[in-house]
Amino acid sequence: MPGTPRKKATIAGPRTKKAVVKTSVAELDRMQAVIWESLDEDKAEDIVAIDLAGRASFADRMVIATGLADRQISAMATHLNEKLVEAGFKKVRLEGANGTDWVLIDAGDIIVHLFKPDS
Description:
alpha+beta, about 120 residues
C-alpha cells in the first residue's frame, strides 16, 4: 500500500535534522557574565537579564540594555561580539550594528537587545 508508514519513511529518506545540544546552566552563566561585564565596561544603562528557559524556543535567556547614542550602541555591540568570541563563543551574529537605534546580538542561547531608552 502506498500509505504505509514504512513506505512513507522510504520516500521521505533518512532524517537529516541534527540533534539539538542543550547548553549547560554553567555555560549559560559564564556567557551571561561575559555579556554583563562587557556591557558594564561600555557604560550600558538599565541592564536586565530575563530567564526564558521553558518559555521560548529561540533562546534560554535574554539581556536588554540601553545606550544613549547610536554610536555608543554600535560600539557596545562590536565590543560585546569581540568579548564573546575571545571567551570561546563562536556562533555570534549581529543585526543592526551599522548605527541604528536598535541592535540584536544572537549568541545562540542568549539574545541581547541594545537600544536607546526612547526606542
